[in-house]
Structure formats: structure tokens, C-alpha cells
Design goal:
Number of helices: 12
Strand content: 25-35%
Oligomer: single chain
Radius of gyration: 24 Å
Distance between the termini: 22 Å
Length: 397
């Protein structure tokens, strides 16, 4: 059988693609694991932050330096379209105060089931336990070797993901296959949106304490590489929360991580407030700092133990706590992958690989990663829809 379209990967981008076809086709999804959408079910702690409600023009900066390269793709299939698409399948959405969009049920399972149902209606079947191992351009289409079988399609869409959460099947194994069979290069692959470990981490006993608006920066040779403000979470063994996750791709061993727990206040402002607060106050410095800055007492007690009675040292720690980065938690806990197929090889308006007609690459397999907030799933959808458009042009010229 010659399929109209073969999709490699039954993750978010692959299912978005199958579910978004403008008309039914003869379609096949090859999935290397035994079930679909595993990472989708994990997204947003199972609640699935599917996109953001802000202006699509503001999305570009959320993808870093490559954001402008996917402008056409995002603008053509934007967040409003994604929300409408979900609701057309019966998945109502809600917008949180911070602009993040979730299914009203707060269950990723509802989105997965809707995508699977729409994919079936569009003519797609899923073959499980079918890891693609070889791909080849043939007259009129593409052949894919998966397991003990070879499949043929007029169009081929690679939606194999990156390297994050490898236990879900997104283990990076398709990158060497694409390089060998398609001569497609990939950039360096690094964990992103991942907790960061630092040397001499002092907060193991304070696991669970968080800060709503910390400022976290990463430095090398006294040069700031990245800075992010937002939530910070102390865990039993590492630093997490959006402010850390969003710059974690810069967290190489030996680099320096600096935290201002009281952003936007600086050292001088905090020191002045401490000096004023201790005058005529018989409480110890732990209680004074906790009350003055609305901080947890356990945290303030540890800070005063670290700096002693010096108010200058306490102000310095609160606004510039400095650690040497030892590692990240790696791909095993990374929400996404920094790096992927080089965008210079892709027409990012159609997602077609240059010089390889009928072959599209979408989602996390590309050199695109985003900050937290639903932007990764938005790109999965936008790139999937762009690939669908390309398929239709080939099938219905």
C-alpha cells in the first residue's frame, strides 16, 4: 500500500498533524513505543498548558534567537487558531491569570483522546512498536523501514521529538538516522527546561520553599549569558521553578549562577531597609528579615546562619546569592531539548526540508526550544499545520 502521508512519531506534533489534515487521507503514524502521546500526558504536570493567550507577536521572543525564523509558521497557525481547533473537537479551554491556556478539565488526557479521535477520522492508523530505522527517497514518495516492515508514502513527516524524557521514546535516536539517510545536520543537543544543580547546595532542608519573583542569572568570565525573572523553587537537591528552567540551557558546569530573591530590590535598597528595621527592634535578625521582606522564617534562619550577624552580608546574599553550577538534571528530567535539525535546511513556512520534496520535519526535532508557558506545544501545532498545508499541495496540486 502507498499511503498519502506517513508520520514518524505519535507525540504532540505528530498527532496535531494527523488531526489537522484539511481532509481525510490514507495516513499512517509509526510510533516506536507502545502508546501515543506519553509526553503530552506529562505536560503541565498532567494539566497540559497547551498555549498562551497573549499576542502571537509576543511569542517570537519566547523561542530565543530562532524565534524570528518561525514567524510565518506561527502567524499562519497562531494561538487563537489552536484554541478554536481544540474547541471544535469538543475540548473547551480556560485561561489562567498568567495567560496560560489549559483544557477546562485540566486534564491532558482529554486533549490526547480528542487528537486520536480526529486522527482516526482523518484516515490515520497507528502502528506501535515501530521504530523507524531507515528512510529513502523513491520515485513518487518515500520509503521507511520500521521494525521488520517497509512502508511507502507520497509524503513523509518526521515528528520524532528531541532527547528529553527518553523513557517516553523521545531519545534522540532519529538524529543519526536523519544524518545518515537524509544528510540533515543537527546542532548540539542539550537539556532545556531542566532543574539545575549547584556546588555546596545549602537548601536541602528547605525543599518546597518558593519565591514568586526572583531574578536568576548565569555568568561566565564575568559576562552575563542569560537572565530570567519569575518563580524560583528550592527542592531537596537542586534549583527549579520557571526562572531557573527558562535559562537552564546555559547551565554548564563551572559557570556561575546568581540569585536575587528580592527582585527588583537591589543590595543598597535591601541594606537600607534592614538598617531601618533593626533600629529599636528587639527581635533577632531572622524574624526581622522574615517580617520586613515577607520571607519564610526557615529560609531567613538559614541565610543568617550563612552570613552571621552582618547586615551587609545578609543583604548581599538576599540580592546576589552566588553558586557554581555543577550540572543539570539531564535529559531524564528535561522538559524539552535545546538543539535539533538546523533551520537553515528547512523552509520554515512549509516545514519542508530543502532539496527533499515531500519530506517535512516538525516540532521538537527542529532546533527550536521555548520558555515555559505553552510555547512548545504551540510550535508543535503551528509546525504541524504548516506541514499539513504542504501535504495538501502535493496531494491536491
Amino acid at each position: 500500500m502507498i499511503y498519502d502521508c506517513i508520520i514518524i512519531g505519535a507525540g504532540a506534533s505528530g498527532l496535531f498533524c494527523a488531526a489537522s489534515m484539511p481532509r481525510p487521507v490514507s495516513g499512517l503514524i509509526l510510533e516506536k513505543t507502545g502508546r501515543p502521546g506519553t509526553k503530552l500526558l506529562m505536560s503541565g504536570s498532567g494539566h497540559c498548558n497547551v498555549t498562551h493567550s497573549g499576542s502571537i507577536k509576543d511569542f517570537l521572543k519566547c523561542y530565543g534567537e530562532n524565534g524570528t525564523k518561525i514567524r510565518k509558521c506561527l502567524y499562519s497557525h497562531n494561538n487563537r487558531e489552536l484554541i478554536s481547533f481544540l474547541e471544535s473537537m469538543g475540548v473547551k479551554t480556560v485561561v489562567r491569570e498568567d495567560g496560560k491556556v489549559f483544557p477546562a478539565s485540566m486534564s491532558a488526557k482529554d486533549i490526547l483522546e480528542a487528537l486520536l479521535d480526529a486522527s482516526r477520522k482523518n484516515g490515520f492508523t497507528i502502528e506501535y512498536e515501530r521504530p523507524a530505522s531507515h528512510m529513502k527517497k523513491i520515485p513518487g514518495g518515500w520509503s521507511v523501514r520500521a521494525g521488520n516492515s517497509t512502508f511507502t508514502g507520497k509524503c513523509l513527516i518526521i515528528a520524532s521529538g528531541g532527547c528529553s524524557y527518553p523513557s517516553t521514546g523521545s531519545d534522540g535516536s532519529m538524529f543519526p538516522v536523519m544524518e545518515r539517510d537524509l544528510d540533515l545536520r543537527h546542532t548540539q543537543l542539550k537539556p532545556a527546561l531542566v532543574p539545575v544543580k549547584v556546588a555546596s547546595y545549602p537548601y536541602g532542608e528547605l525543599s518546597g520553599i518558593s519565591f514568586a519573583n526572583a531574578c536568576v542569572s548565569i555568568w561566565e568570565n564575568e559576562k552575563r549569558l542569560a537572565m530570567e525573572t519569575g518563580g524560583l523553587l528550592l527542592t531537596h537537591g537542586d534549583l527549579s521553578g520557571p526562572a531557573v528552567l527558562n535559562i537552564s540551557k546555559y547551565a554548564s558546569p563551572g559557570r556561575i549562577l546568581v540569585i536575587n530573591y528580592l527582585h527588583p530590590a537591589d543590595f543598597r535598597h535591601v541594606l537600607d531597609r534592614l538598617n531601618s528595621a533593626v533600629k529599636g527592634n528587639s527581635s533577632d535578625i531572622t524574624n526581622i528579615a522574615a517580617e520586613e521582606f515577607s520571607l519564610p522564617k526557615r529560609f531567613c534562619r538559614m541565610m543568617t546562619e550563612r552570613c552571621g550577624p552582618s547586615l551587609k552580608k545578609l543583604a548581599a546574599l538576599l540580592t546576589g546569592d552566588t553558586f557554581e553550577i555543577s550540572s543539570t538534571e539531564g535529559f531524564g528530567r528535561a522538559m524539552t531539548t535545546c538543539g535539533g535539525i538546523e533551520l537553515s535546511q528547512i523552509d520554515t513556512s512549509s516545514m519542508e526540508a530543502k532539496g527533499l520534496p515531500g519530506l517535512m520535519i516538525i516540532g521538537e526535532a527542529l532546533d527550536i526550544d521555548a520558555v515555559t508557558g505553552g510555547y512548545s506545544l504551540q510550535f508543535a501545532y503551528s509546525s504541524a499545520c504548516a506541514a499539513c498545508d504542504s501535504v495538501m499541495k502535493k496531494l491536491d496540486p
